[in-house]
Structures are given as structure tokens and as C-alpha cells.
Amino acid sequence: MKRLKIYRYFLWLTIAVALTGTTSCGSKEVELPFETIERNDSHSAEEGYVGLEPCAVLVTNQDDVERLEGLISQVALDQLAGLNFEQYFVVAVLRGRQPTSGYNTIIERVAKQGDKIVVYAQFWEPSPHWEVQSAETSPYHLIRVHKDDTVLRETELVLQSQVVTPTPPF
Question: C-alpha distances in angstroms, 29 versus 5, 26, 65, 93, 156?
Fold first, then answer.
């Protein structure tokens, strides 16, 4: 009887240790607060990112700002020239070439998962009930995020997006 109690004790102890180990091994997501530098939904497709697929760009130092030249407005580039990259890093989500106005790019949140930065974005499509301009656009959202020591140039940036089409109220 005493042997059975000891066996149960070790069984429960083993289960507790196993459960604790599995919950602590998963990479936890840490929310990163951010500030918008610029969100531009009508940026010209001739000047902006002409790709057809969305992309995200991580800028961790002043040298990386060159990667955004021609993709974002000159006003935003001027703001990046004065940014303290010791304190912040920048994320740009570029929607790509769109046939009309009415396409919006909105970064909802940014999170750190292990050695990755995950950017959650919404890509708004124009509602069929809205009037749009026929000019091609290249919408984007540019943000700054407070830097910690683990965000490096080699940090992987992951874009998680969803397409949203608003419906008018009745």
C-alpha cells in the first residue's frame, strides 16, 4: 500500500514537471508598442513600391534607410534621417501597386516571438459602394518601435496580413 502511494506521488510529480516544461518551451509573443511615422494610402505607384505582392521592411540603422528611398514619401525619409536608431527601429509595410485609390494599409500590432518580429496588418480593399479615383497607388504604413537589445539587422520580420473590405452601414 505504501509502495502504491509513492508510485502515485512520483507519477503526479512527473506529470507536473512535464506540463511545466511544455508550457515554458513555446515561444511567447510579446506585444511591442509602436508609433506611426506616416500612413499613405494615395502614394503614387510610379514613385512607390511597384511589386504586386505586399512586403515588410525592417530598418535598424541609418544605412538601412536607403532601402526605402523611392518607396515612401520624401517627408517620411526626412523624418527617418533624424530618427535615433539607438532607441528605435522602423518597420515599413508596403502594399504594392494597386489599380485605384481606396486601398489602405494598416499595421494593427507588432509582436516579438523569439527571434522574430511579427507584424499584423490589415489590407483594406475599396468597397463597391465607394467612389474611387482611377490613378494607380502604392499604399504603405511606416512605424517606429522602441528598440531592445535583441532587435538586430538579422532579425527575421514576418508579415501576417488579412484583406478587409468594408461594408457600408444600413
Answer: 40, 9, 27, 20, 14
Looking at the structure of the chain, the number of domains it has is 1
Nearest to 41 by CA among 95, 122, 111: 95
Instruction: List the grid coordinates of 92.
Output: 515599413
Which residues, at least 6 apart from 54, have a Cβ–Cβ distance to it below 8 Å?
93, 94, 95, 96, 105, 121, 123, 159, 161
Range of the domain at 111: 27-164
Q: From residue 55, how far is each of 14, 28, 158 by CA, in Å? A: 46, 24, 9
The DSSP secondary-structure symbol of 85 reads T
Task: Give burial (CB, 10 Å; 0-12/13-18/19+) of 2.
Answer: exposed
In Å, what is the CA distance from 94 to each residue of 25, 90, 136? 33, 13, 14
Going from the first residue of the chain to its last (170 residues), give the mean pLDDT of each consecutive group of 10, the final group possibly shorter.
Answer: 61 60 65 95 84 92 94 95 95 94 94 93 89 90 88 84 78
The cell numbers describing 7, all together, are 508510485
Say if 14 falls within a structural domain. Answer: no
